Please model this.
Amino acid sequence: MIKSETIIDITNKRQIGRITGATPGPTLIFTAGIHGNEPSGVTALENVFNALKNYEGAIKGTVIGHKGNLRALNFNVRFIDEDLNRIWSKERLKQPFNPHSSEAREQVELWQEIQDILSDNNGPYYFFDLHTTSGQTIPFLTVNDSLLNRRFTKNYPLPIVLGIEEYLKGPILSYINELGYVAFGFEGGQHSDGSSIIRHEHFIYTTLGITGVLSPHAVQNHKNTLKELGKGRANYFEIFTYQHVPFSVDFEMKPSFKNFQKVKKGELLAILNGEKINSPTKAQIFMPLYQQQGDDGFFLVRPIPRFFLWLSKHIRKWYKLLTLLPGVHANSADSSEIIVNTHVARFFPKQIFHLFGYRARQLKGHQYIMQNRETASRTAAYYNEPWF
Model:
């Protein structure tokens, strides 16, 4: 028998729904609305939980859906005081709670809910963050670059963008990835596009099939639809350029860019404080900013050749060798964190470190602190999963 909780109104409690099947299985956690102007994922989860009541006896494991930024959702704004998806650093979470902002209170509530889920449910655990964008887009995945995440997300017929964690400070998924779990984001479309809700539903059902919570055959039509929506672009992309928009600075994106649209070298992309920003090279534009709130102006991406994906898969176990390079030394006993002197190691492009599983976490002076994504992964917990 399925145990199902009543769907709760958007203006009320954080939990959207929770369903546990009679058969043991994984625990899936979907978060929607961590940005308050992105309610499509919330509506999609409400619809799916209502529909799952009809799958009595077919569900394996537990499915949980909750809302991110309750107060911002009520006002349909990205955030109230600060971006809730930019404050999930270990350093901040270790500090005594200081309710200096609306999002600080939201973070504590979300953090406690995550801890309760991990202590009260059976693994393996999967975390999914549902989003929409301010510009037009096909659906895609944003994925922290670990082999565990790669292995799981290759089951989706969608574009996969790796390495966004190197450019964004404090996303919730980076925090969860550092705990070792499968965790990534799904972008379902434009904020104002009503079809974004349906795209999220297709993603959720496809995920239930991949993880074995539902029979893959029962949800194959959803996966087929995702493939059509992805327009055959089931490739891996890497971010190589990021335009930050400082607070109180005038920024205007050139109108009508679509996500993954190709741009030429020298093409005008945006105006920042009256200065033109042109594309430094031939590329594809990614997540152009067409809203008032937010400090991520745009990214530039390019496809990753499959050879380098294959190479990185096989050499990451040798990550400790990087500490033999000049200007590189370990910052932890297991070399999971290294410090790179950019003056000495300037001849080694960041792509070399990416191949070995490192991503730059922060820059202090002339030193990069880089974190290895593989050492935290709880890969063994997923060995018996149907997709592994």
Remarks:
- Residues 237-303 form a domain with the OB fold (Dihydrolipoamide Acetyltransferase, E2P) fold (CATH 2.40.50.100).
- The chain has ten helices and 19 strands.
- Residues 7 and 50 are 8 Å apart (CA to CA).
- Residues 1-12 have pLDDT under 50 and may be disordered.
